[in-house]
Every structure is written in C-alpha cells, then in structure tokens.
Amino acid sequence: MAEDGSTTDGAAPAGPPVRLDPALLDALGVAAGTPATLLQFSSAFCAPCRTTRRVLGEVAGMLDGVRHVEVDAESHLDAVRALGIWRTPTVLVVDARGEIVQRAAGVPAKAQVIAALAPLLPGGPDG
C-alpha cells in the first residue's frame, strides 16, 4: 500500500474515508473501537490470499492496536457488493471510527502495510 492507498499492481487509492455501517462491521467480525483493523477479503483457492494472510498476520502480531480479520468473499456477497470488492485479495484498512482509510488489491509488502497503519496508531503521525 503506497501512501496514496495504491499497491504495486495499480489498484486505485481509497479516496476520502468511507464510514461503514456498524452492523456490517459487526457481521464481518470487526470489533468496534479497535485502533486499526486489516479487513482482508479472500477466496478459497486464492494463492495470493494465503500470502496476504501471512503478511497481515505478521504485522498485526507486531503492532499493538492492530487486528487482522479475514473474510471469505463468497460467504459475504452482500458485503462484497456493498464495498465494491472486485478481486481477492482485497484489504481494507478500517480505523477506530469504522472508516475505510485505505484499500488495496493484491499482495501488499509488509512495509506498505506498516506505513498505511502508522497514522492510526498511538505515536503515529496522526495517532
């Protein structure tokens, strides 16, 4: 995830933050008030999804206040449509207010994920 929210595969930036419906967040397993959630949409036979799971899990394990939630896209088609998920893996960075502050498709580099999270965490540029 680049500073503008894009990835090396050319994904579009997130644009302005989009606040998610608290009921949708709850249905997807995103805990309200978590400083930063890495919300990953995956599919069953997606090899890049497994790599993304590993990268995001490592980042969540090393940074306080970060949680990784993986969602099976096929089991949550309403959310996939509502959020404009067009491919897997797609990762949404959700802040404590339930806003999508970054989005990227494809496998992110660990450094990209950490940079995307920095403003959301205590001691970060904006946190």
TrEMBL record:
Ranges of residues in domain Thioredoxin: 1-122
Protein name, as recorded: Thioredoxin family protein
Native source organism of the sequence: Polymorphospora lycopeni
InterPro entries (UniProt xref): Thioredoxin-like_sf, Thioredoxin_domain
Stored SUPFAM superfamilies: Thioredoxin-like
Taxonomic superkingdom: Bacteria
One Pfam family per UniProt: Thioredoxin
